[in-house]
Backbone:
């Protein structure tokens, strides 16, 4: 039986994204084209591959079995085709990265322009989101995450600053009105601008000094979705609404301008910087190989 490779790719994209709309967004193909491709594949195979409801799209048992065999096979096809790139003067193709919003804002701006200038035949697509994502199922070649979120079977390459800090800050007007905290526990009596992950969890504010670690469940009127609406918390802090706790690099322009003042700086915790991660396999796509080499050689 001769099956169109594009139809197989369409099925994998829809099944991985659990929907035609998300599959279209990740693959760059219209939802109607994906739907037609999957319908054509099901007709040719004579079996339903996806359960479709108004709320979700999930593989049938037959679809799941096909998916388990297809993913590694299509990966090998991509790798085989990519060997041709080795005969080009310059690598070409599309590199898709899945990154947290913080990395899109703080890490990639110093890397992407130089990389694209060095490799004009490579197109880069960046998808920024803060949830846990299977990069392959999402149709991406690699991702950026911090070490506590890395999967053990992935290859991880350092990217960006190797050490970062979280910082606490507030506007001069807020500090004049409410007073300056002298110890992290003082924040329990302050208006704190909190953040919630997409999963629903709300991380505590962590401080560290001379081996002493404090984790505080602070309170405040404003809660934002971390990543997507973090700038709202920063803007509220600048306006004098409360205390913000965020990446130091994110707050640095406001600290340098005086719009925000640092709070409890001796207690700001340090943590290791992010990693580029990707599945371990013998042959990497040429755009990803070029990107890995580029960040490893970067000063």
Residues:
């Amino acid at each position: 039986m001769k099956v169109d490779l594009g139809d197989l790719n369409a099925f994998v994209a829809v099944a991985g994204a659990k929907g035609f709309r998300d599959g279209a967004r990740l693959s760059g193909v219209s939802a109607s084209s994906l739907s037609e491709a999957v319908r054509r594949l099901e007709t040719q195979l004579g079996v339903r591959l996806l359960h479709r409801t108004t709320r979700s799209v999930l593989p049938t048992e037959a679809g799941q079995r096909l998916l388990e065999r297809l993913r590694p096979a299509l990966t090998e096809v991509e790798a085989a085709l990519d060997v041709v790139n080795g005969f080009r003067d310059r690598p070409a193709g599309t590199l898709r990265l899945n990154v947290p919003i913080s990395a899109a804002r703080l890490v990639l701006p110093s890397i992407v322009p130089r990389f694209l200038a060095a490799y004009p035949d490579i197109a880069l697509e960046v998808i920024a989101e803060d949830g846990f994502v299977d990069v392959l199922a999402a149709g991406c070649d690699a991702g950026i995450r911090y070490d506590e979120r890395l999967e053990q079977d992935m290859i991880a390459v350092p990217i960006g600053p190797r050490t970062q800090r979280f910082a606490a800050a507030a506007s001069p007007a807020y500090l004049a009105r409410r007073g300056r905290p002298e110890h992290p526990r003082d924040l329990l009596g302050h208006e704190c601008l909190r953040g919630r992950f997409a999963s629903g969890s709300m991380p505590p504010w962590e401080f560290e000094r001379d081996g002493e670690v404090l984790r505080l469940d602070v309170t405040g009127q404003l809660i934002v979705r971390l990543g997507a609406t973090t700038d709202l918390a920063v803007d509220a802090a600048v306006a004098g609404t409360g205390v913000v706790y965020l990446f130091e690099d994110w707050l640095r322009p406001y600290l340098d301008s005086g719009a925000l003042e640092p709070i409890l700086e001796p207690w700001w915790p340090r943590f290791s910087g992010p990693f580029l991660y990707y599945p371990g396999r013998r042959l990497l796509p040429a755009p990803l190989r070029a990107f890995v080499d580029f960040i490893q050689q970067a000063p």
